[in-house]
Structures are given as structure tokens and as C-alpha cells.
């Protein structure tokens, strides 16, 4: 099995990167391959709601000159994924937000029942907001989210400080351990328990 971990920080080896490495180590200990993709440093255009992805081959985004389509394809093929972002003004980092909008616009239907989770890193406050924002993508894509003992937030400012947040690191590590367990449970159950029956999507607009 394989998990794609998305590092939305502009600093590859900052505290967000350290948090992901904790999760990666735990997943690998459980026999699951992890590929970390660093998107936070890149120039990624935001979604323009053009609708191209709804009609294009393999639902690719109209912008072809960045990492979005390539990474979306990897996430579709993976058994699960992790979304990780630093906290800027109680929100997802800008480049990560642009990346997520386009990936989930093009690929949400491919993510249904995959195991996915999120982690935020923060200096002091606003990290829970970021976890909630990241989880909005996961919930709307109908992914299955593993639990932990608390919100998956790590605290630290200077690179490496998050490793001193004993409770935060334990929470993140336990989340990764539960992710590994859930991946194995779903894989084992495929032979005996079918996924829930689907329905055509009903769309209701409140202003006409």
C-alpha cells in the first residue's frame, strides 16, 4: 500500500516537514510506502472555475505547467494521502490552498473511501482552524479519516521546535498509526464487504 503526503510549507525542512516525517516513519514501520511531495515552494495558479476539468480527458486541470495534474494522478492511484500545512493567519498557506482547490476540483470523485488525514503546524494559535479547513476537502471528497487523541496540530516556530511538543508529536504519531490500521482494515474488507451503494448526486441551488 502507498500513501502520498503533501507538504504545503514553503520550507521543506521546517516544522511541517518534521511533522510529516514523524507520520512517514510510523507508516513505514507498519509496512506502508510513503512519498512526500513538497508543493509549498512552487508557483501554483488558483482554480478559475472554468469547468475544463469536467470535460477533459481524465479530468485534468486546464493549467498544464505545474505539479497539480501529476500529483493528482498519484493521489488517485494511492491508497491514502496526508495533507499538511503551516498556519498563516489561522488559514491554510496560500500556495497549498491553490493546490488543494485544483486537485479536489478535478479529482474528488477518485478519492471516495480512500484513507486520508491532515496535520497543521502553528506557532501559537489558529492551527485547529487549519485542520478544519483541510478536513473540509477530505469530508467533501468522502474520504475515511483516522482518529487520534486530539486535533492533529503540532506547535513550533523555528525549524525543529515541533519535535519538542511531546503531546503534539504523540497525537500526530497515533494518527499515522490509526491511518495504517484503517488502510489495512479497508484492504482486508474489500473481499468480503462491498463499498456503500452509490447514488446519482442531487444538486440543489438555493437562489434561482
Q: What is the tally of beta strands? A: 6
Helix coverage percent: 25-40%
Tally the helices.
5
Strand content: 15-25%
Look at the structure and give the mean pLDDT.
96
Distance between the terminal alpha carbons, to the nearest Å?
A: 46 Å
Poorly predicted regions are none
Largest sheet: 6 strands, mixed
Inertia-based shape: globular
| Structural class category | alpha/beta
Order of secondary-structure elements: EHEHEEHEHEH
Radius of gyration: 17 Å
Report on this model:
Strands 1, 2, 3, 4, 5 and 6 form a 6-stranded mixed beta sheet that branches. It is built from 5 helices and 6 strands. By secondary structure, the protein is an alpha/beta fold. A hairpin with a 2-residue loop joins strand 3 and strand 4. It is globular.
